[in-house]
Write a structure and sequence with these properties.
This protein is an alpha/beta fold and 392 residues long. 33% of the residues lie in helices and 17% in strands. The protein has 2 domains: 166 residues, Rossmann fold (3-Layer(aba) Sandwich); 197 residues, Phosphoglycerate kinase, N-terminal domain (Rossmann fold, 3-Layer(aba) Sandwich). Strands 5-6-4-1-7-8 form a 6-stranded parallel sheet.
Length: 392
């Protein structure tokens, strides 16, 4: 896979740059700028190389129809302030655009095409659409790892028509994930949360042979607590997952990977309640398990202390209520402390985990924070990503 930084002369080259700027919007106001901050290195790199940049991106799921509530306009305005440079947003029908129509003003260096998912051909991975897009530029760069699990025209098919390269962020993301899946420094630990164990079973199965510890927290852990014969009250759970859990424990023995789950928990009667510490044999029928308890926190901290590589995907509890944020906070603090003396390599991913890390202003305290959701998980499952394969 070739990286754009190795291309010799980018001066005045028209670069079709695929980015993931799918940021959360509330009435046109960006509520989390993480994904915009992540694309600054590639934008600044191409500006310095005096390239002409044509950005392709999307917001939301407009399903092939124009919806200006999902316009890229607020993102353009935000990015303009960050780089102190004017950005031209093109609303014209892409099918009517030609290469010579772009950059007529010599001062223009960055052009945004409007939300690429306004066109149904994008998600259909349409041959003609990809070919037309390619006709607007000299080179194609994919710096949207988080979209690279999609068979979409601007991610996959387009590489058939242009010299294609990985961007700076995409290569960084892949290198970080390689360090925890193939270039492993042991002991290696995975802390995994989320509500459904069935959605993460592929990851667990793929990581069991490679990892030393898998720590299960969050809603997923409730299923295991129940599987082990304990009450979980009215806590979030998933039905019909006993077979999956049984296989996890059998395979963990086979591969000598230790599975850790809560010994004690924090409960409340509702999501807004105060927290109460309980052992697994003390949970009542109207309790909600909303965080891990102090014994479990100490056990996890000890595992982190003895690890050299760590993957964290999924908070430990309902951190939106500060009474149930301590488990996630202590996990984060332990990893950050190890990071300070360079004695651990840490990769963090998943929307809820990032939301928590943002809440404690900890983004810069981990080796790598992935904004990719589905692509991150599919890579960890060992699946081949269409956008990456297309670059190869």
């Amino acid at each position: 896979m070739n990286n754009i930084k190795d291309y010799e002369n980018l001066n005045q080259k028209k670069i079709l740059l695929r980015l993931d700027l799918n940021v959360p919007l509330n009435n046109g106001v960006i509520t989390d700028e993480t994904r915009i901050d992540k694309i600054l290195p590639i934008i600044n790199f191409l500006i310095k190389k005096n390239s002409k940049i044509i950005v392709i991106s999307h917001v939301g799921r407009p399903k092939g129809k124009i919806n200006y509530d999902l316009s890229l306009k607020p993102i353009c305005e935000n990015l303009e302030k960050k780089i102190n440079q004017k950005i031209h947003l093109i609303n014209n029908d892409i099918f009517k655009l030609k290469k010579d129509d772009l950059f007529k003003d010599p001062n223009d260096q960055i052009i945004f095409l409007e939300n690429i998912r306004f066109y149904e051909e994008e998600e259909k991975n349409d041959y003609s659409f990809a070919k037309h897009l390619a006709g607007l530029a000299d080179l194609y760069v994919n710096d949207a790892f988080s979209c690279s699990h999609r068979f979409h025209a601007s991610v996959n098919k387009i590489t058939e028509f242009l010299p294609s390269f990985a961007g700076l962020q995409l290569e960084t993301e892949i290198n970080a994930l390689k360090k925890i899946t193939s270039e492993i420094k042991k002991p290696i630990t995975c802390i995994i949360g989320g509500s459904k164990i069935s959605t993460k079973i592929g990851i667990i199965e793929n990581l069991l042979p490679k990892f030393d510890n898998i720590v299960i927290v969050g809603g997923m852990a409730n299923n295991i607590i129940r599987f082990k014969g304990n009450q979980i009250g009215k806590s979030i759970k998933e039905e019909n997952c006993e077979k999956i859990i049984k296989e996890i424990f059998e395979n963990s023995k086979k591969y000598s990977c230790k599975i850790t789950f809560p010994d004690d928990v924090l409960v409340g009667k509702n999501f807004n309640d105060k927290s109460k510490i309980k052992g697994l044999n003390e949970i009542e029928y109207d309790d909600l398990i909303l965080d891990i308890g102090p014994k479990t926190i100490n056990k996890i901290k000890n595992i982190i202390e003895n690890s050299k590589t760590i993957l964290w995907n999924g908070p430990a509890g309902y951190f939106e209520n500060s009474n149930f944020a301590n488990g996630s906070y202590e996990i984060a603090k332990s990893i950050i402390n190890k990071n300070k003396n360079k004695s651990i390599y840490s990769v963090v991913g998943g929307g809820d985990t990032i939301a928590f890390i943002n809440k404690i202003n900890g983004m810069k305290n981990f080796d790598f924070v992935s904004t990719a959701g589905g692509a991150f998980l599919e890579y960890l499952e060992g699946k081949e990503l269409p956008g990456i394969k297309a670059l190869d």
